[in-house]
Structures are given as structure tokens and as C-alpha cells.
Amino acid sequence: MEKKNIIEKTKVVASKPAKNEDKQKEKAPDNEKSVENDGAIKSKKKYIYEVGRRKEASAQIRLFKKGDGKITVNGKDIKDYFPSQVMQEIVRAPLKIVGQDGKLEILAKVSGGGVCGQAEAIRHGISKTLLEINTNFRKPLRKHGYLTRDSRVKERKKPGLKRARKAPQWVKR
User: Fold this and answer.
1) What pLDDT is recorded for position 33?
2) pLDDT given at position 1
3) Rg of the chain in Å (alpha carbons)
4) Domain containing 54 — which CATH number?
5) What's the confidence (pLDDT) of residue 29?
6) Would you say residue 88 lies in a domain?
7) Which of 65, 74, 71, 73 is nearest to 45 (CA)?
8) Quick check: is 149 in a domain?
9) How confident is the model at residue 38 (pLDDT cuts 50, 70, 90)?
10) pLDDT recorded at residue 27
């Protein structure tokens, strides 16, 4: 009788992982999600995800291959989020270089930093996503420096100084 109980227990234990494996197979991949934008739920589309960074700004980029050229930043149109034409050009620069401006839809979620840092973080993320579409884009993007993360950040304050390098006025006596 004890042998039968042991055999039954091993069968039960062996069958549990099979159920978990079935549940994992049923789950959709992470990049096939419905994305909500301005209250409208989009159908499930495949997108390419990358992260771009600059100074303190971090941008999460979703690039949809099938799109109308719309760029959305934090749920707002690019013209509303970046009213300055210069910042809009910074964001669109990698698309114009590779000839994809107006063909791809981009959703960006950006946080931290200032306006210029956020625009450059989005530009870095878009450049990285374009590489996944076509590796031939590497040469023009690298030439303009859009693939390199600009690592310059604010220098820390040192003790005895007012800022990173500014010292108090020197007094002779």
C-alpha cells in the first residue's frame, strides 16, 4: 500500500508543471499588446521597443511598422508636447536621414530631465529602433552620432565649493 501512495504522489507532482507550461504557452508575447492612445484602443499591433537616454531623461520608444507617420509623446501629439520647431526637428532627425519620415508610427513615453534632454533621448531611442527594422541604417545614423548615448551628465558638487567647480572668492587675509 505504501508503494501505491508513493507512485500516486509522484504522478500528481509530475502533472503540475504541465499545467503551468500550458498557461505560459497561452500568454501572448510582450510586444503584441493593445495600446491605448487618446482614449481609443488600438488593435493588437507588433511594435519594436527600445529605450533612449540623455542626461537625466529616459525615453521608452514603441515603433509601429504599419503607421501613418504620427509621433505621440506621453499621450500628446509631438506639436503639443514640443511646441518649439527645433525640438520637433531633433526628434524627427533620424527618420529623415533614413527616409522613413511619415511612414512609421511612434509612441514615446519620456520622463526626467529638461525639454532638450527629453527630445534627444527620444531621438536616441528612435535611432535604436530603426536599426532593428534595417541594419543598413547603421552607417548614416552612426555618421550623425545618433546611435551613441551622450554620456555627459551634470558633475557632482564637491565639499568646500559652491558648485562642482565654483569656489568661494579667495581672501588673502
Assistant:
1) 47
2) 54
3) 25
4) 3.30.230.10
5) 47
6) yes
7) 65
8) no
9) very low
10) 44
